[in-house]
Structures are given as structure tokens and as C-alpha cells.
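Hello Y.,

Per our agreement to keep a running log of every chain we model this quarter, I'm adding this entry. I've kept the format consistent with earlier entries: sequence first, then predicted structure.
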Amino acid sequence: MTASEGPFYNSETGDTAWLIIRGFLVPLILGKEVGSASEIPGILRHSGSRDGRAGIENALWDIEAQQKNLSLSQLLGGTQSEIKCGVSLGLQATPEVLLEKVAVEASRRLSGIKLKVKPGKDLEVVRAVRNAHPGILLSVDANSAYTLAELEHLKRFDEI
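Predicted structure for the entry above:
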């Protein structure tokens, strides 16, 4: 997780995460002998700052990998030389703007594209993308914008 500039997705921001890191998390680690980054979650387990903890833990995993002259993937036991990844595209002003963005991302040979949808900006948008790019792996994310009362509407996604 990455803290954003405002408390939109969760309650933390870059500024609040930094205050918690500086004022609470660093003092928990300072002066402790840490043999591996894998020990950090146990030391910081009582902190409520997920983003702050993640920042410190990620930095220490990176340091440990550099000290051992390993890639982070190797240090964590990874076996793949490449990671397939996709992209998430937010709501756009018009379907045409979204189609332009999808075309750019589809040309990058990503493993998939996730579209943000919401009531009123869903079926027609997904249908337009599917028609323009029938072969791409496509998923949608509504961030809990629908209720059970809209179940029949949501079933219509199966038709696309």
C-alpha cells in the first residue's frame, strides 16, 4: 500500500505516515539489533499505521537485499525473472477518452486491464472496450459502488 496525498482511499496520507514513522515507528526500531527485515513486522505489530510500517519494512528489505548482493526477488525466494502486470484505469470523462487510454495500455502487452466503473458508467463503457479489444484480459472494479438491489443489473456484465 502507498499513502496518497489525501485521505481518499484510506485514512493515511504521505504526511501522516511520515509523522507516524518519525514520531512512533523509528523510536521502536532505533537501538535494536535487527538481523533481518523479516523481524520488522513483529517489532511494529502494534502500530496502527499500515502505510508507515510498509515504508519502513520495504526500505529494510531493500537494504538487506543490497547488503547480501541479491535482488529483492531472490531474497524473498522468488523464482520468476519477470512479473506479469496489468494496469488499472480510472473513470474517464467520456468512453472515447477511455478507449484512447486502453489502446495505449493494450499496446504495452500488459497481462490485463482493470476498468473502474460505477452506476451509470459501467455496461456501455465495458462493452465499448470489449468490442475494441476483444482479446485482452479485462476486469472491472466498482469500489463498492453497487448494492444487492442492483444484482440484476450486475448480472448483465456476463453478456459482454
